[in-house]
Amino acid sequence: MKTLFEQAVRILTLGISLLVASLNVQADAAHKLQEKLKNISSYKASFSQEIRDEFNTVLDSSSGYFELQRPKQFRWIVVDPYEQEIVADGENLWQFDRDIEQINVSELTASLETTPAAILTKDQVDIVDNYNVAEIATSRDDTTLFQLSSKAEDSLFERLLMEFEGEQLIALQVSDNLGQTTSIEFSEINLDPGFASDHFAFSPPEDIDVIDNRNKVADNAKDEP
To answer: Any idea where this protein resides (predicted)?
Structure first.
């Protein structure tokens, strides 16, 4: 009986040790990613994007450029195959689809809160407290790959991969809860583009329809009995 008890204690101790070691590795990866994100206050790069379904079928391919100024300002400009602008001016999120001549605008914080974009655009994101993070080995010594999953139950993504070359973010891959995967590769990266103070302002053209979603939540709340 004593032998069985001692074996059980040893197994339990080993299990706890492995769990603690695993948590320490996750915490180290989270702190390492946090430091890399702190170095990105502004960013400009060309991108190519591909979206695949759960059967690995390509649903959409596009390319353009991405500009970022923390906090909460960015321009995601699709050039090919259809022109589209997504602009965050710090308070609003504008989406301008030029082919159908339509603009949608929504409140920025509500639009980004549960998306991967919050990690790049918010002034401060506590990676350690809000995400499970693991560092994944790569075949290149100069690249670092992180895998993230949100601790929030209402997160819109299941898994996020972020790949860095030195301090430069060179790729993202987002897997959502519907089985779709979005892969983005960045090139021509500039971490100090020097944007003008009004670079992220957006003024809708007079002849374009604007669908304003900013007050829908408040209006819906008023209509409830």
So the answer is: Periplasm
